[in-house]
Amino acid sequence: MNKKAAIKGRGAQLNVPNRFFELSHDMRDDFLEFCRKEGEDSDKNKTLYLDVFPKTIVNKVESPDVGMTYSMNPYQGCEHGCIYCYARNSHEYWGYSAGLDFERRIMVKKKAPKLLEAVLKKKGWRAHPIVMSGNTDCYQPAEKQYEITRQCLEVFLRYKHPVGIITKNALILRDLDLLKTLSKDNLIGVNISITSLSEDTRRILEPRTATIKRRLETVKTLSENGIPVNVMLAPIIPSINSHEVLALAKAASDHGALSIAHTIVRLNGAIGEIFTDWIHKTMPDRAQKVLNQIESCHGGSLNDSRFKTRMRGEGKIAEQINNLVKLARQKYFKNKAMPKLNLTLHEQHKTAQLRLF
């Protein structure tokens, strides 16, 4: 890595213009702080938590290929800093950049538990799994301070409602007590994202995430406590982690995961520019090769927005990756599967509550 050019501890290396603003629009950084590590310049690495007050927290997911119907996000923006993250573009709707702002301006929804409870109490609401972290990680560093995710899990437990979690942070083990109780009634499914077995790769792809060792230990601990775990091999990036598919799948299975899922990287919106800048700074020797191979998976473009195709890609390289995942499933996950979550207890709980009045 070019040490002089790179911003330590971050994924994105620049702030790209917000597409909703004029290019001349200026945004100030009014808060200064030294980097947590290695003495970064004071105006470079501030993480700022901002309270926001949304009117709703549960979102209907309209995309037909995402694999969830409802999601909720206690935080917007994510300090993990994963360079490939599709959620970066959503930060522009809040008036920020999809680049460094996404990692350094974290919006905190302290009313999320109350908003969630209001949804689950609605007379017309019918139980359907709600996935925490459909956009940004609900166990990112902010959660250690605010505990919003834990409070939401308490609401799900109180109302006997099914919930899914997507994370790459070992902090989830803090809430093992709640997860175990939810699991007894088949109300929880956890997805742990593991993109590489190489710490060198992890550090530059996902600079503020849990180590690979800790993530695998998290899969093992959850599994040993009866909590079903799916491992997300996502995204697979040609010539960065594409050669690790079988090894990743074996490690996931060996640590107790019941299934794997994958996507092939696509660099939609501003992420194309952010990723291109990043890879030329971090992997200059193979930058163009990686970019060309990503384009070959998406019809000659870094981005592909076509439903059904965008997640799996097309062309020779995408076909090879998808076939490797199929082989991994046959080899390491035969006779394994994630259980379907229980949708009946919530209605029984609401009926029992009504009888009290």
Structure description:
By secondary structure, this protein is an alpha/beta fold. The protein is built from twelve helices and ten strands. The strands form two sheets. The protein has a seven-stranded mixed sheet with strand order 2-3-6-7-8-9-10. Strands 1-5-4 form a three-stranded mixed sheet. α2 runs parallel beside α4 (148-158) and α8 (245-254) packs parallel to α11 (316-332). The chain is globular and about 65 Å long. Mean pLDDT is 89; it is low at 20-43.
Q: What's the short story on this structure?
A:
The chain has helices at 100-104, 112-121, 142-146, 148-158, 176-184, 199-205, 212-224, 245-254, 271-282, 287-296, 316-332, 345-355, and strands spanning 48-51, 58-60, 70-72, 75-76, 105-108, 130-132, 163-167, 188-193, 229-236, 259-264.
Strand order of the largest sheet: 2-3-6-7-8-9-10
Based on CA inertia axes, which overall geometry fits? globular
Rg, alpha carbons: 20 Å
Low-confidence stretches: 20-43
Helix content estimate: 25-40%
> Termini distance?
65 Å
The topology string of helices and strands comes to EEEEHEHEHHEHEHHEHEHHHH
For the biggest sheet, the summary is:
7 strands, mixed
Work out the number of β strands. Answer: 10
The pLDDT mean sits at 89
The fraction of residues in strands falls at 5-15%
Question: Helix- and strand-based class?
Answer: alpha/beta
Number of helices: 12
